[in-house]
Write a structure and sequence with these properties.
globular
């Protein structure tokens, strides 16, 4: 199975904003980024999945009139930190989270391990399907986690994976 992992296009936000589940509008450059994404999807796909975030569903809708929204494709839930800036949250709590984001959750949010559990469940389920070409519109965090599964990486190194807005990453999934 060939899987196209598509990161949503550029959103509008202030530098330092903490957003995982926070809804953001897309940048005015969306039409150009959309065309770049389309050009990467050579030959198309049989099925399209999307995170429920508006920044993902807008791109999914522009790629296909039919797509499946799956909550497991959401970005990390930052809980009480959503919509705040890194410099305004409790700094000792931030440091504790940064020291072990794999296991420590943000206040009212989730840890990377919790996110990994839902993303890997989706990935395993997808692997049991008979599709040959699948597209997934989601977030950098989800793409990093899928790539960590595919490449058998430890979660502490997933931020070494860089995923640009509107980037399409091709993965061959052999079950």
């Amino acid at each position: 199975m060939e899987v196209f992992l598509i990161r949503h296009t550029t959103p509008v936000f202030e530098p330092g904003l903490i957003y995982g589940r926070k809804e953001l509008v897309l940048d005015a450059g969306f039409p150009l980024e959309l065309e770049a994404v389309r050009s990467e999807l050579n030959g198309g796909f049989e099925i399209l999945y999307s995170s429920p975030a508006l920044r993902c569903t807008e791109l999914a809708r522009a790629l296909s009139p039919e797509f499946i929204v799956d909550n497991r494709l959401q970005e990390l839930d930052f809980g009480e930190w959503e919509g705040k800036t890194w410099d305004t949250v409790d700094q000792p709590a931030l440091q504790a989270w940064m020291d072990d984001y794999v296991n420590v959750s943000t206040p009212g949010g989730e840890s990377m391990m919790q996110m990994y559990a839902r993303v890997s469940e989706f990935w395993e389920e997808l692997g049991q399907s008979d599709y040959e070409k699948v597209a997934i519109v989601t977030h950098a965090g989800v793409i990093r986690l899928i790539l960590s599964i595919v490449n058998q990486m430890v979660l502490t190194s997933i931020f070494d994976i860089k995923v640009a807005y509107g980037e399409v990453v091709r993965v061959r999934f052999n079950g």
